[in-house]
Queue: 2 jobs
Job 1
Amino acid sequence: MMKKILYSLAVCLSLAALAACEENRGMDPEMLNAEGLSLEVNGRIVQDFAESQCQMTFNASRNEFRVGDDKMTEYYILKCNKVPTAKGETLNVDLSWTQSGSLQSRSGLRFVVEKIGDDGRVWLWDEKDAIAAIIYKSIY
């Protein structure tokens, strides 16, 4: 009887340890291969623009990247503590975006630069809040 209890306890502890060591999920591979500019929140793309069908602006005095439609009714804005320059770099970001006709925002996000493309696009990922964004840094 004692062996069964110890065995059960060992199994429970092993399962708990495995759950605690959940592997870093990372940025969605589809997002890493995206062609346009996108914002993904909790695994769901909430903004997706082809480069030829959107407006992109950068405000150097605020390190602010804006991506949106021609009327800016659908958009996302990242206000960063610095301009991303290298893969692995961490940025402090305040983010706002439109979703289903309402304004959403999150402050104090910590994005990591996952990838910088030859075309100047930058893939950013916040693991804690599960938010991915693609911006175009070649506009500044």
Note: The chain has a mean pLDDT of 84.
Job 2
Amino acid sequence: MKKILSLLPTQSLIYSLVCGAGVIVFIFLIIVSNQNLSAELDQEIEKLNDRIEQQRILRPVFDSLLERAQQEKPTDLPATKIVKLDPGDISKVSELIQDMAGRHDLKIQNIRTDANEIMNNTGYMLMRVEATGDFMKFRDFLMDLATIPSLEQIEEIKIGAIEASRDYKLRIWMAQKLPEDR
């Protein structure tokens, strides 16, 4: 070994060691770090492929929701032509409201007609309705109530919670014939 070392000049040996060290440093710094970067990129590509697959799976759901959202919704409820009540029809309206409530599983607690409004000849009659029942069925009851031809407006709705149900208080105005309209 000493012969080999003696044949090579010391300066050449130092240069070759420095070059070898440079090559090793190049390999560790450049190539290994690029492999780590490549592995990270592969993981990101895998994640993006998974997201693309999720989007592909969810696309039909998105399309159906978009189609529903783009459907034109009715802006107003169908208007019912107002027909004024005869004084003798007041009890019929009470019965009609009770029947509607029965169809929607609501229990009518009280229906009161304001006698002052009848006597004032304003052309409108105030009714107070108190009922109990399920909220979703109450909604259907309101939709049914809106079909009464003499209903002028629902002035007030109060909803209260009671045991396993809801309590509803309505103030509704009905159009009524005046004596000169008869």
Note: Residues 87-181 form a domain with the Alpha-Beta Plaits fold (CATH 3.30.70.60).
